[in-house]
Amino acid sequence: MAESRSQWQSDAFKKRLRRRNVSERRFRLLGIAAVLLAGVSLAVLLVSVLKSGFGAAYRTEVALDVAFDPETLGLGPLQSDSSIDVPASADFGAVLRTALMRRFPDVEGRAQIRELIALLSRGAGARLADQLRANPSLLGTRERVWIPTADDVNLLLDARRRDASAKPNTRLSDQQIAWIDALVRDDQLESRFNGRFFTAGDSREPELAGIGGALLGTALTLLVTLAISFPLGVAAAVYLEEFAPDNRWTRHLEVNINNLAAVPSIVFGLLGLAVFLGLFGMPRSAPVVGGMTLALMTLPVIIIASRASIAAVPVWIRESARGLGASPVQVVAHQILPIAMPGIVTGTLLGLARAMGETAPLLMIGMVAFIVDVPTSFTDASSALPVQIYLWADNPERGFVEKVSGAILVLLALLGLLNGAAILLRQRFEQRW
Known about the structure:
Elements: H1 2-8, H2 11-53, E1 58-67, H3 70-73, H4 92-103, H5 109-117, H6 124-134, E2 142-148, H7 151-162, H8 174-185, E3 189-193, H9 196-199, H10 212-243, H11 248-260, H12 265-279, H13 287-311, H14 315-323, H15 328-356, H16 360-364, H17 385-393, H18 400-429
Antiparallel strand pairs: 1-2, 1-3
Helix pairs in contact: 2-18, 10-13, 10-15, 10-17, 12-13, 13-15, 14-15, 15-18, 17-18
């Protein structure tokens, strides 16, 4: 006993103990450093996206006294009825040019007029047309209207807000900057909330581009994905966990389901391209095809999560129900599924969150097209939010940088809502035994 006690108190043992404690402290510090590094990296990423993304919700507009003259618009004599059919040939560009020339009467020459008109967005005429259709009483009157400016004007003002002394890196000429300064002094130029960013479709012009079409396309695609993957995934999980015999074929099927959950998403895109588009000839770039393709990718995840939830139901619940005379189907429908549903719903929401952020499968089935119109059905040509971000990130126009960051913020918010809903449902309805 004395010899054993002396071994625990020997210098060699104490040295080994100190070495072990030092190693444990070093390992703990490395873990803390890794967590801090990941947190700092995430914070830097979010701050950079937030700094650039909030600008997408605002755009610069100029207030002009616009005369809706029927002759200038090419509409003929003044119409007195309450309905106005504005033709596509209506010359709203001439109306805007007249308003600008009235504001800057000293502008002379075609070159200066072109520079002055270039301050306005190319979609300014369409904005006036929409206002005239919505309010026919404007015809024949002069009203102060807020008109969207070109994105270069917005970039100039943003650069000045960040650093008033810095020389802006812009394509605007000195004369155009002087006109902008004059409008700012007269309070005719200001940054206003850009509601079109959340409601409009894509556009070649950064100041007119929006995520409305991509948002609706994402919603339609996820609805198709949910409608297909949820019932099929739950049914497959119930069969494999409760009714399937334990044989070689069942084990082979389980292994393949687990392997499919780890297959790269682009493979499912190739499968959707070959089957839904090539074999069945379904409409290209449609939410129904995108939803079916994403359902193939989400199905293994839902099956695995549902099986885990069903397996977690205590055995005595099954035995008690069967002892009372319930059939196997009644046990599943009235006992097992209600108890396992929180876990099943959680796995489904997490699978949908993964599907929402996927780009590669949608690129393979053609949802990368330039879509201006907002989709109205499951078969209309559409885009999705991740694909929209991909398209804008590849655009050389500097104005799309803010649009990319703003779309990323919206996508992160939606993913956060789905993941948060999954956690809340799990905590709210989970039963502990």
